[in-house]
UniProtKB/TrEMBL annotation:
InterPro entries: DNA_pol3_chi (IPR007459), PolIII_chi_sf (IPR036768)
GO molecular function: DNA binding; DNA-directed DNA polymerase activity
Alphabetical GO biological process terms: DNA replication; positive regulation of DNA-templated DNA replication initiation
Domain of life: Bacteria
Name the UniProt record assigns to this protein: DNA polymerase III subunit chi
SUPFAM superfamilies listed in its UniProt record: DNA polymerase III chi subunit
């Protein structure tokens, strides 16, 4: 059973944090699903990933292509995609079943948006109440530190 990591973004935007998490996930040999509710935002992230660092290219694709099942990183709005790691953005969250079936699930949220913070708190409660192990990571000090943990 995996765990869900909550990343409270306060120092760096999603667009700067995401490539680091994706690269670390690929280094683990994981297939990653990056999921959010907004197709336009996922399309923007897709374009940014294509324009990223050439030495650290992140192979990926936007869902809807003929080779979705073979993408090392799949950007999608749909639940139910097979993955070792599910990264949720823009208020999306993994289900307890997804957490149990993956190596890791992540929830990234904007710490400057009070609604996003409240949504993340609701997701934390729902997932930990369902028995999922969870860790809360903050970058408030300028570097990532684990601030809370729930057993699961």
């Amino acid at each position: 059973m995996g765990a869900v990591f909550f990343y409270h973004l306060t120092q760096r935007p999603l667009e700067a944090t995401l490539p680091v998490l994706l690269e670390k996930s690929l280094e683990q040999g994981w297939r990653v699903v990056l999921r959010g509710p907004n197709v336009e935002h996922l399309s923007k992230l897709d374009a940014q990933l294509w324009l990223g660092n050439e030495e650290a290219f992140l192979p990926h694709g936007l869902a809807g292509g003929p080779h979705d099942d073979f993408q090392p990183i799949l950007l999608t709005t749909q639940k139910g995609q097979k993955a070792d790691c599910v990264i949720c953005i823009d208020g999306d969250a993994p289900t307890a079943e997804e957490v149990a079936q993956t190596q890791r699930a992540c929830v990234l949220f904007d710490g400057h948006d009070p609604d996003a913070v409240q949504t993340a708190r609701r997701h934390w409660k729902a997932l930990t109440d369902a028995g999922c192990a969870a860790k809360y990571w903050s970058e408030e000090s300028g570097r990532w530190e684990m601030k809370a943990e729930s057993g699961g």
